[in-house]
Design brief:
The protein is of the alpha+beta class. It is 30% helix and 24% strand. It has helices at 97-108, 112-120, 139-150, 184-199, 212-229, 236-249, 293-308, 314-317, 382-397, 400-404, and strands at residues 2-6, 17-22, 29-30, 35-40, 45-49, 54-59, 66-67, 72-77, 202-210, 256-258, 261-263, 270-272, 274-276, 279-281, 284-285, 322-326, 345-349, 352-359, 362-376. Strands 9, 12, 15, 16, 17, 18 and 19 form a seven-stranded mixed β-sheet that branches. A four-stranded antiparallel β-sheet has the order 1-8-6-3, with no helix packed on it. Helix 2 (112-120) runs parallel beside helix 3.
Length: 406
C-alpha cells in the first residue's frame, strides 16, 4: 500500500514552510514514528514523521523547497522491503564488521551538507561530535571540528559559550567572503524588529535594583526549594512575579494598540526570551498571575528545554501580553530592548555587578542590576513607565511585597 506523507496543517498565522535536510533517503526502510524531515516556519521547526512502516519509495519535495499545508512530501510503500548491499572490501583495505558498523552509524547521523563537507575534506566522521537532534552531525559541527584540528596545540582553551552559536564559515583566501542565506526565523525576526521600530514610538527608562535581598532569600532556601519542587530556584521567577504585580498596578503596560483603540488585557501571559540553536525565541507562560514561584520555574525550565531541543510548537510562541528578556546571561551591562509587537512594553534584565552604593550615609558594596523598560509612547506616558519600573524595583528589594501582593 502506498501512503502519502504530507505537510502538517500549519497555524493560521503561518502561510508556508521551508524544508530542511531529509533524514531518510529514497529506498531506505523507515519505521512508523521516524523523523523524515524538519519543516522550518517563521516561528518554529516541525518534525514530519513516518505514519507507517515501509520503504521510502519517492521523495517529491527537496531540501530548500517552500511548501504549504497538506502538500505531499513523499510516498511510503508499506509492502516493499529495502535491499541492503554490503560494502566491498579488499585484502589491501581490511575493514572489520565493528568498524564498518560504527562508520555507517555515524554517516547516517550526518546531514547531507555535513556529509559532503566531510567527504570533500577527507575527515574521519567518527571523530566528529554531533550537536543536532539525537546527536546528528550538522555542517556547523564539521566546521567546528576543522577549526579545532587546525588550532595551535599550545593555544589555551576558549571559555564555554553562553549560548549555542554558529561557527564562522570555513572560507579561505586573502579577503574571504561567503554569502549565507538567512533562516526563515532570522528573516522573520528581522522583519518584526524593523516593523517595531517603524510602527511604534519606542522610549526606554532605566533604574537599578539591589539584588541582595533576592540573593539572600535564594541562597537560604534554594536547596529545600529544589528538593520539594524538583526545579531550581532562579531569578527569573521573581522578576516574573514582580512584573505581574506591577502590571496589575499599571494595566496600560499590559495593553496594546488596536487600530484607534487601546486593548486592555485582564490576563497576564508573560513571554520569556530564550536562546535556542536557531536564535532567540519567546515562549509564553500562560496566566503567570495564577502560578506560584515553583510553577513559574517549572514552566521556564520546560519551555527552555523545548527551545533547545527544537520542540516548541506554535501555541508555545503565540500571544503574550508582556515580555522579559535577560541580556545579563551574556554579560550585558545595559541595553534598550525592543518591544515585541503587538505588545507595548518589555522588561530588560542585565548582569549583576558588585557596585559601591550609599546606604544610610555610608558607602557599601551591593550586587546591583540595571533594569530597562522599553515602551510604546503612543499610549504609555513616561510617568507610568517610570512608576512601573519603580514598582518592580521595590518588590525585588523587598520580596515580601510580591509574596503578600503589595
Amino acid at each position: 500500500m502506498l501512503v502519502e506523507i504530507k505537510v502538517p496543517i500549519l497555524a493560521e498565522s503561518v502561510t508556508d514552510a521551508s524544508l530542511l535536510d531529509w533524514q531518510k533517503q529514497e529506498g531506505e526502510l523507515v519505521t512508523r514514528g521516524d523523523n523524515l524531515i524538519d519543516l522550518e516556519t517563521d516561528k518554529v521547526t516541525l518534525e514530519v514523521t513516518a505514519t507507517e512502516t515501509g520503504v521510502l519509495k519517492q521523495i517529491l519535495k527537496q531540501t530548500g523547497d517552500t511548501v504549504l499545508s497538506e502538500e505531499v512530501l513523499a510516498i511510503i510503500d508499506t509492502e516493499a522491503s529495502a535491499g541492503v548491499s554490503a560494502p566491498a572490501t579488499t585484502a589491501q583495505e581490511p575493514v572489520t564488521e565493528a568498524a564498518q558498523s560504527s562508520s555507517d552509524d555515524a554517516d547516517a547521523k550526518a546531514n547531507p551538507s555535513a556529509r559532503k563537507m566531510i567527504e570533500d575534506n577527507k575527515l574521519d566522521i567518527t571523530a566528529i561530535t554531533g550537536t543536532g537532534k539525537q546527536g546528528r552531525i550538522t555542517k556547523s559541527d564539521v566546521i567546528a571540528h576543522m577549526e579545532a584540528a587546525s588550532a595551535p596545540a599550545a593555544a589555551s582553551p576558549a571559555p564555554a559559550a553562553a549560548k549555542p552559536t554558529a561557527p564562522a564559515p570555513a572560507i579561505t583566501g586573502e579577503r574571504p567572503e561567503e554569502r549565507v542565506a538567512m533562516t526563515r526565523l532570522r528573516k522573520r525576526a528581522s522583519q518584526r524588529l524593523l516593523e517595531a521600530q517603524q510602527d511604534n514610538a519606542i522610549l526606554t527608562t532605566f533604574n537599578e535594583v539591589n539584588m541582595k535581598p533576592i540573593m539572600d532569600l535564594r541562597a537560604k532556601h534554594k536547596e529545600a526549594f529544589e528538593k520539594k519542587h524538583g526545579v531550581r530556584l532562579g531569578f527569573m521567577s521573581f522578576f516574573t512575579k514582580a512584573a505581574v504585580e506591577s502590571l496589575k498596578q499599571f494595566p496600560i503596560m499590559n495593553s496594546s494598540v488596536d487600530g484607534d483603540d487601546i486593548l486592555y488585557r485582564g490576563y497576564f501571559d508573560i513571554g520569556i526570551a530564550v536562546s535556542s540553536p536557531r536564535g532567540l525565541v519567546v515562549p509564553i507562560i500562560r496566566d503567570a498571575d495564577l502560578q506560584s514561584i515553583a510553577e513559574i520555574e517549572a514552566s521556564i525550565a520546560g519551555l527552555g528545554q523545548k527551545a533547545r531541543d527544537g520542540k516548541l510548537d506554535i501555541d508555545d510562541l503565540t500571544g503574550g501580553t508582556f515580555t522579559i528578556t535577560n541580556g545579563g546571561t551574556f554579560g550585558s551591562m545595559l541595553s534598550t530592548p525592543i518591544i515585541n509587537p503587538p505588545q507595548s512594553a518589555i522588561l530588560g534584565m542585565h548582569n549583576i555587578v558588585q557596585r559601591p552604593v550609599a546606604e544610610n550615609g555610608e558607602v557599601v558594596i551591593r550586587p546591583i542590576m540595571y533594569l530597562a523598560v522599553s515602551y510604546d509612547h503612543r499610549i504609555i506616558d513616561g510617568s507610568d513607565a517610570v512608576r512601573f519600573l519603580v514598582s518592580i524595583k521595590n518588590q525585588l528589594e523587598d520580596p515580601a511585597r510580591m509574596l503578600l501582593g503589595l
